[in-house]
Amino acid sequence: ISKASTLFGTFFGDPENNRHSMQIEINRALYLDESTYEKSEGFETLRRDIEEVTSQLAAFVLEQARMARE
Predict the structure, then answer these.
(1) In this model, does residue 1 exceed pLDDT 90?
(2) How many alpha carbons fall within 13 Å on the CB side of residue 49?
(3) Which residues are paired to 66 by β-bridges?
(4) If we measure between CA atoms, which residue out of 26, 25, 20, 24 comes closest to residue 2?
(5) What is the spatial distance between Cα 3 and Cα 28, in angstroms, rounded to a whole number?
(6) What are phi and psi of 5, to 5 degrees?
(7) What pLDDT shows up at residue 7?
(8) Can you spell out the DSSP letters for 2-66?
(9) Across the strands, what pairs with 12?
(10) The Cα angle at residue 55 between residues 53 and 60, in degrees rounded to 5
């Protein structure tokens, strides 16, 4: 089992048993004006990009689960 510690906690993956973990860190400057803490021009682009990555990742996981059942 591999272990990754971060500022927000500890996450475990166990690739040998097909349990994988992923952590993505995003630079706040991509979506936030750090001086006012308001959304920047990049917010909507980043939101759409995260939505797309999440959707594709979910489809991949579902396909892997389907194939494992066969």
Answers:
(1) no
(2) 9
(3) none
(4) 20
(5) 25
(6) -105, 140
(7) 56
(8) EEEEETTEEEEEBGGGTB--------GGGTEETTTTEE-TTHHHHHHHHHHHHHHHHHHHHHHHH
(9) 3
(10) 95
Q: For 2-6, 42-46, 49-53, 66-70, which range has the lowest pLDDT when averaged over its residues? A: 2-6
Alpha-carbon span 62 to 53, nearest angstrom = 14
12-31 as b/e, with b when 16 or more CB fall inside 10 Å? eeeeeeeeeeeeeeeeeeeb
Tokens representing 16? 């040998």
